[in-house]
Amino acid sequence: MVLKTVEWKNNKVVMIDQTKLPNELVFVEFDDFNQVADAIKNLVVRGAPAIGVSGAFGLALAVLQSDAETKQDLISYLENARKILFETRPTAINLGWGLNKIMDVAKHCNSIQEIKESVIAEAKKMAEDDIEINKTMGKNGSVLFDNNDTIMTHCNAGALATVAYGTALGVIRATKESGKQVKVIATETRPIQQGSRLTAFELQHDGFDVSLIPDTAVGYSMANGLVNKVVVGADRIVKTGHVFNKIGTYQVATMAKQHGIPFYVAAPLSTIDLKSKADEVIIEMRKGSEVTGIGDKKTAPDDVNVINPAFDMTPPELITGIITEKGVVSSPYEESIQKLFDENN
């Protein structure tokens, strides 16, 4: 069974509740865009491509919820829903991309009925496109990996971070599908443990040879020759090639550089932000309780100060290549990334 992280069924949004993994595989249904906003904020759904599509589906629910009688009133209702959905998570650019794409479709329609039909159709198409984009990206990246490679990945950039198939894990899937034998080392990815809860679950579910390590064992694994290559996803890539991804990515990339291990990033063009500079990107800060305890178990003293950034920035000089659905680019990134978009138009 291929896991589908988020989909549209009977005018409802159906998601895997990722907060319940790996203990339970639970699907939740939403018929209100506010529920989708809460799901994004509370990590029921996470991963840049997945929240981009979830945002689009949230607006699809909003067109069904609205009782507007004019096009302008419906657009106003959608703009308010867009704002609520957008404010859930500020770092990943795919959320804004998905919401803006839906709003553009809505604004170009002539009637309420046309808006409803077109918005739902576009959101469903975005979900379908996500899978095809990931498969193409996987094939583009698979040529970079060799038979018997052991590939390290950080956080979860798999089917659970997308609609299905995955970005970084999509590359690993495509490598295996091309006939090469590969092993995977997954970092636990504290404090939410997306690596141990999600990546290890997903890869085991799909029959991969996967080993789990604590985040603090990245250097050990590399120094002892346990890793050949690294591939991670991204929540945002700016035009200079600076990559924003799950906290700890910068450390993995630095260690890889130290040990001469190729470090790749896999992300669709929708994750690339051509407008923002690296120092303009807002890093989401999350609640301290994620660090001071696990579930109901306290692991730190009361009232200790906590710094809990969700993401960090990896500079381009640490990145061997960026894998996209339009090909693989390398340094100098400002030129090679722009070329992807020039060729795309």
Structure, explained:
With 345 residues, the chain is an alpha/beta fold. It folds into two domains: 6-135, Up-down Bundle (Four Helix Bundle (Hemerythrin (Met), subunit A)); 138-344, 3-Layer(aba) Sandwich (Rossmann fold). It has helices at residues 33-41, 48-65, 71-86, 93-107, 112-142, 168-177, 194-205, 218-223, 249-258, 289-292, 333-344; strands spanning 6-9, 12-16, 27-30, 149-153, 182-187, 209-213, 229-232, 236-238, 243-246, 263-266, 272-273, 293-294, 297-298, 311-314, 321-324, 327-329. The strands form four sheets. The chain has a seven-stranded mixed sheet with strand order 6-5-4-7-10-15-16, with helices on both faces. Strands 11-8-9-14 form a four-stranded mixed sheet, covered by helices on one side. Strands 1-2-3 form a three-stranded antiparallel sheet, with helices on one face. Strand 1 (6-9) and strand 2 form a beta hairpin. The chain starts with 5 loop residues before the first strand and ends with a helix. The model has no long low-confidence stretch (mean pLDDT 95). The active site is at residue 235. Substrate binds at residues 46-48, 89, 194, 245-246. One of its GO terms (biological process) is L-methionine salvage from methylthioadenosine. Catalyzes the interconversion of methylthioribose-1-phosphate (MTR-1-P) into methylthioribulose-1-phosphate (MTRu-1-P).
